[in-house]
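Chapter review. Work through the record for Fucosyltransferase before attempting the end-of-chapter questions.
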Amino acid sequence: METQNSSRCCKNLFIAVALITFFSAIFYMYYEPSVNWLNCPAVPKHEVCGNICINALKMPDQIQLVNNTCIVNFTSVRHQLTQTEAPSSQGDDLDTILLIWMFPFGQPFDLGLCSSMYDIHGCHLTADKSQFNRAHGVFFHHGDINGDLSNMPKLPRPPFQKWVWINMESPSNSGQRSNLNNLFNLTATYRQDSDIMVPYGRMSVESGGKKHEKIPHKNKLVCWIVSNWNSNYERSKYYAELKEHISIETYGNHFNRRISDQHYSDVVSSCKFYLSFENSIHKDYITEKLYNPLSLGTVPVVLGPPRKNYEEFIPGSAFIHVHDFNSPKELAEHLKLLDQNDDLYRQYFTWREHLVESRSFFGLEHACRACDHIRRNKNYRVVNDLNSWYWG
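Structure tokens for Fucosyltransferase:
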């Protein structure tokens, strides 16, 4: 009896399931909902749903849900999604955006060279100030900031945004202002303790070296080019005494012998020694006055920070420091000795066997490296006392 009842129940259950399945099939064949579970608009067969479903596809763990409800042609959805996320004229949304608020000294530079010049990728430089709220960083050059900050952004700074302070002048040649404290997040200068350090030049190892590069022909002993003259500068005082003991070919506005950019290389490369005298003496302040003669095959005679500081950037055998001698007269005697001994003179070029010199591109390199720093470092930081750090 129990066996018969059980068989009858199973038979009835099977019939019920079959009926439900049949009517469900009829229902889905003839009924087309106007709204689905994701509120996507109705679409023709073999097409894709609208922006709501595409947005759902962008969300984590939602792909299967979208597939089950409103995607008929998955390939076309991926194509549509790709088109909606294509890079715009303002740069790819995945790029770190650095806004150049002011070009240094008003001199624009090419904004598209970070990848080719410095192998920096994922950065987008722009000078379009309408991008302020989107920019991850904003670039400000100290020398172009108005004293009353009237040319700074008027909109509130977004919380994620970094303001980068750029300066390549020494503290002696930069105006100090108290209203710059607590304004910037990052610093980009020639100094090694900057967040983004960009020296005036670099030396790096080059594969194969430059062992057989010829030293240019020399027809002058000591040369100096100077236009910014101040009799109180240390370099002016040293020159005044040095010239009493050795002949120095002088050029520049101060000596009424201005030379053009086209003739600069010819003049410097024709000198055995060049006076690479800085206009002010500060740690790490080692400018193009050193790197230009090095690249042109001339031995620089430096006056600036101590020798030890120079040797943090270039080999000690590549230059002559005025502090190596007790007086300008002793320096003059040493230069005359090298002039008479070619083997001793050529020892100052041995660095060329393994190293190559390069100079920074002011503005462009700072912007590229600042953008790359922001892309790699998401931590919060603020420069509370810029004045004490830079001028203290």
